[in-house]
Amino acid sequence: MTHVCFRGVLLRLAIADLHGRADLLEGLLLHVPDDTTFVFLGDAIDRGHRNRDTMRLLSQLADQGRMTLLRGNHEAIVLEVDESFERFKREPTELRRGDALLAMQNWIQNGGDTVVIEYGGWDSGGEPDAFGEWGLPPELMAYAGRTEYTYRHLGGEKGDVLCVHAAPSLVKGYRSLEDSMVWARPEDGPFVLPEGVLLSVHGHTPIRAPTRVGQHIFMDLGAKWTGHLCTLDLDTLKFTTYKGVAEDKLENLPALEPMGDLQPMMLEFDVVEL
């Protein structure tokens, strides 16, 4: 499903990957008007240590009509884990059990261990909103399940801006369009854009500065590590990062490589200290 918004006078910001950094989202909200609306590019969870707070705050904003929630690969992994456990419950064979455990292991290796710890561990004693033989916590599944794949910001005569976590079209080597939208990397591009779309905006791949390559913009500045939560005004295309506590420096992140014959161009951004 594609969420469409008509251009208006309200500030509309795209927000890059949070990965449990609720503190950065809280800080951002203190620095923008109360009627600001947002498009979150996906990956709310994993690796960070305030995953539940991040999901709850994003969900509260969505309930208020101020936040569009897109699906990242980390939300997609959670949904795959849940589906594998549901299959095991319907068909409790060793094969299905192995599939479920393999899916769980894949999630843990991708940073899901921090989420499991927040919910009290895998064997959490039967609490209703926790992990157990029945599967994943309802709160976690409710968040992942409400995410969408794309958001299209109507930009007038010049063309629209399409927001999607990884890629806006089917990419060779991926099993489906949905897989491409959450997993494809910049080096898989350039991507085919829908008719009427001027630019596509993506998170997913941590880089040292917001970067444009052809008709694609990449803006994940590794907030979990660098403390830089990158935002993009979808009308003016102005970047601002909101910087909190950091484990690493932006310059230690990689720069994008050329995309075919297209050369990457790092873009300027303002920094607001939290």
Explain how this protein is built.
The protein has 274 residues and is of the alpha/beta class. It has two domains: 2-72 and 147-273, Purple Acid Phosphatase, chain A, domain 2, CATH 3.60.21; 75-143, no CATH class. It is 30% helix and 20% strand. It has seven helices and 13 strands. It has helices at 22-29, 51-63, 73-90, 94-118, 138-145, 177-183, 223-226, and strands at residues 2-6, 12-15, 37-40, 67-69, 150-154, 160-164, 197-202, 211-213, 216-218, 228-233, 239-243, 265-266, 270-273. The strands form two sheets. It has a seven-stranded mixed β-sheet with strand order 1-5-6-7-9-8-12, with no helix packed on it. Helix 1 runs parallel beside helix 2 (51-63), helix 3 (73-90) crosses helix 4 and helix 3 packs across helix 5 (138-145). The longest helix has 25 residues, at 94-118. The mean pLDDT is 93.
The SSE order reads: EEHEHEHHHEEHEEEHEEEE
Described by strand count, sense and barrel closure, the largest sheet is: 7 strands, mixed
Number of helices: 7
Q: Strand order of the main beta sheet, please? A: 1-5-6-7-9-8-12
Count of discrete structural domains: 2
Rg from Cα? 19 Å
